[in-house]
Amino acid sequence: MRKTTRFGLGAVLATVLSAGAGYADTIKIAFIDPLSGPFASTGTNGLHQYEFAAEELVNKKGGVLDGDTFEVVGFDNKISPKESLIQLQVAIDQGIRYIVQGNSSGVANALTDAIEKHNRRNPDDRVLFLNYSAVDPALTNDKCNFWHFRFDANADIKMDALTDIIAEDDSITKVYVIGQDYSFGKAVSAAASRFLGEKRPDIEIVGNELHPIGKVKDFTPYSRKIVSSGADVIITGNWGADMLNLGKSVIENGFEGPIYTYYAAADGITAAFGEQGKDKLRLVTEGQTNPPPTDTAAAYIEAFKAKYPDGNMSQTRITNVIEMLAKAIDQAGTATDVVAVAEALEGMEHETMWGGTLYMRPEDHQLIQDVLITVHTDEDIQFDLDNSGYGQHLESRVEMAGKDSPTTCKMRRP
Amino acid sequence: MDLVLVNLIDGLVTGLLLFMLSAGLTLIFSMMGVLNFAHASFYMLGAYFAYQISIFLGFWMGLLIAPLVVGVIGAGVERYGLRRVHQYGHVPELIFTFGLALLIEEVVQFIWGKDQMPYEIPGILEGAAFAIAGNTIPLYKVFMIFLSLLIFGGLLYVLTKTRVGMIIQAALSYPKTVEALGHNVPLVFMGVFGVGTALAGVAGVIAGPVLSTFPGMAVVLGSIVFVTIVIGGLGSLFGALVASLIIGWLTTFAKAYDVRMEDILTGIGFTKPDPIWDSAWQDLWTLTSPQIADILPYLLMVLILIFRPYGLFGKRDA
User: Fold this and answer.
1) Out of A38, A41, A272, whose CB is closest to B219?
2) Does A272 contact B211 at a Cβ distance shorter than 8 Å?
3) Distance CA B187, CA B176 (A)
4) From A100, A174, B211, B228, which residue has the greatest number of CB atoms within 10 Å?
5) Which residue of B has its CA nearest to A226?
6) pLDDT averaged over chain B?
């Protein structure tokens, strides 16, 4: 049975390779993220941004190698790790060598394990995992492997930058940490306690709790606890409906202070918060859109909005993934030998249109980049989100955040 | 102590909202003997319709019109869908409603997209009604409580005190006899199905602005509604009310107070393994009640099914 599969795959591969000799190939990128269910809007918007980036930044500029073009193929994983592994296998069976995924570190953890096993067992059709959003620090620490590259700043790096900002504000004495009950939520909570303990031991963490992910209908009981704890600041890693419902609920129940978040923007969240969240929601993120850092960036957002009037340029790092992948394929001179591509990605420096330089740290495959704190407002917003008039405006910037951050990664190279 | 009162009110709101959903479902079940998997989808439709209407005519017209539209759609589903499938037995009916739920979700995504809708509470209901020890109770919650109680009262009155209610109750128990007496039983069924789905629509209209209006809202609430009517007893309106309130308070209090499994276990007399991170029981020992609050109703359902399979207020044969 296995032999036939091998043979079949080999035959397909041979056909693909021979067909590619004379013509320009398409290099397929599998996008494995939720395209249905409660987190569908995040996934669909991400897919659009990938398709657009591949088209604008690669295909329209003549592609890579000898005119090979990028094609992004969407796979719906319903945010379930189990479903993701099935979709991964489908993608591999289709001869796809580049996997991008971002929503949920739980999924990313499952994928990175599966990909490492697959690559060990099938040296002939290895794949690369370009993680653009899953920020569980373990992925570039204990669980790191050669095939995984992370293009977002991990939760620790973001928390490091965020706590720098909090530590400067002497009026903050009480902090409440709340998150979703899975690897990322736990990482945020652990990092918050650790960094605040180091930087401002006088700050009291008045609450530190986890709630089931995607299951909470009403956050009122949590908000009650937060308000009655007297917290000055809330830190949360929540995303999707969990972010919106938590935020709305705490504001409605009388919380006055800032809410520091990782993902409280776009996908309807910005519009739904509207006036209510003004100057309250702060985002620790990468990729500046207001004010636009470069003319290229401004033109790029305008073109994206022209194509997807209802879409959002919410994950600017997606352009970094596509640009750096294209650059690495060109440098390696091949798109099929992913080891060469991975080696080209390692240590790559890249000027991003969103301002600043990117550096793919070879030790752990963590992209080092500027981390920003932005605020939800309608003042001085050139590019709003959700067509709501509200957007994220730059408040402070930490350059090359976490450049020297320690890693426990012991990379095993092929 | 003050917080207890606040939590009681919060739990009441959650419970009453759940009741509005489960009331319709349990009525439909006792009538047709079939679980309507699409019930929570009608709740979602209510929210989306009301949002769309509120853009043009304001919140109040949405509250008035959206449930009517949902009810008419529900009645249509019964008349032209379920009634035809009915003759093939219960399993095709179940599959029909299940398919309908998927269909409605897709249609909603097709029309409104996958994003959250900016469905807002009306200006007149914004702000706090009163505060207990610094915890504000939003005016909107008070409105939700009154509206739900009003609906419950109205439903109870119609079902127990009016002629229509008597015919419905009779038709639920002895459809053949009632039909022989000259009443149009299929019409009664259609009416009950319509009213049941309209109730879900009302729940959607008033829950949409606070629990957010998005395509996943039916899935999030769908399973818990079934749990409610199983706990309350299939077909029992009063049971649905009691079960909804129990679930509302149970989850609210479990979230509001950090009861730690560690305290319970040591209270019973177990000793904590040391070091805890090497123990196979680590996950059990480190549990806290907010973490498991939302699965407590399911636990309760399992217990009810073991010790009282027909639910709190269900009849054995129902």
Assistant:
1) A38
2) no
3) 14
4) B228
5) B256
6) 87
Tally the domains of chain B: 1
Q: What average pLDDT does range A85-109 have in this prediction?
A: 94
Element (H, E) at A33: strand A26-33
Question: How far B267 CA sits from the closest chain A CA (Å)?
Answer: 23
Query: Which pLDDT tens digit goes with each residue over A389-412?
Result: 999 999 999 999 888 888 999 998
Q: What are the residue ranges of CATH 3.40.50.2300 in chain A? A: 2-152+296-368, 156-290+370-398
What's the CATH number where B61 sits?
1.10.3470
Does residue B97 lie in a domain region? yes
CB-closest option in A39, A211, A386 to B290: A211
Question: Is residue A172 within 8 Å of residue A233, measured between CB atoms?
Answer: yes
Whole-number Å distance between alpha carbons of A123 and A170: 55
Residue B309 lies in a domain: no
Q: Which CATH number fits domain A156-290+370-398: 3.40.50.2300, 1.10.3720.10, 3.40.640.10, 2.40.30.10?
A: 3.40.50.2300
Q: Provide mean pLDDT across the span A37-64.
A: 90
- Which residue of A lies nearest to B118 if distances are taken between CA atoms? A272
CATH topology of domain A2-152+296-368: Rossmann fold (3.40.50)
The lowest-confidence range among A55-64, A347-356, B122-131 is B122-131
Work out whether strand A391-398 and strand A371-377 pair parallel, antiparallel, or are unpaired.
antiparallel
pLDDT number for residue A6: 53
Contact across the interface for B116 and A217, Cβ inside 8 Å = no
> Which of A37, A212, A254 lies nearest to residue B291, judging by beta carbons?
A212
Q: State whether A224 and B135 contact (CB < 8 Å).
A: yes
For tokens 């570039």, the residue is A140
**Upstream peptide bond of A291 is cis (omega within 30 degrees of 0):** yes
B238 lies in a domain? yes
- Contact between B136 and A254 using a beta-carbon 8 Å cutoff: yes
Straight-line distance from the first to the last Cα atom of chain A, in angstroms, rounded to the nearest whole number:
28
pLDDT-derived band at A17, boundaries 50, 70, 90: very low
Q: What pLDDT shows up at residue A23?
A: 59
Of residues B316 and A217, the one with the higher pLDDT is: A217
Q: Do B114 and A222 touch (CB under 8 A)?
A: no
Token pair for B180:
């022989």
- Helices and strands: H and E segment counts in chain A: 12, 15
Domain that holds residue B218: 2-257
Across the interface, of B116, B138, B253, the residue whose CB is closest to A268 is B116
Q: Give the tokens for residue A413.
A: 């190279």
Chain A: residue whose CA lies nearest to B291: A211
Amino acid at A407: T
Residue B314 belongs to a domain? no
Burial class (CB in 10 A: 0-12, 13-18, 19+), B227: buried
| Mean local confidence (pLDDT), B142-171 | 89
Q: Do A218 and B216 touch (CB under 8 A)?
A: no
Q: In this model, does residue B96 exceed pLDDT 80?
A: yes
A217 touches chain B (CB under 8 A): yes
Alpha helices of A202-279 — where are they, by DSSP H? 220-228, 241-252, 269-273
Residue in A closest to B220 by C-alpha = A215
Spatial neighbors of A393 by CB under 8 A, at least 6 apart, are: A290, A291, A374, A375, A377, A379, A380, A381
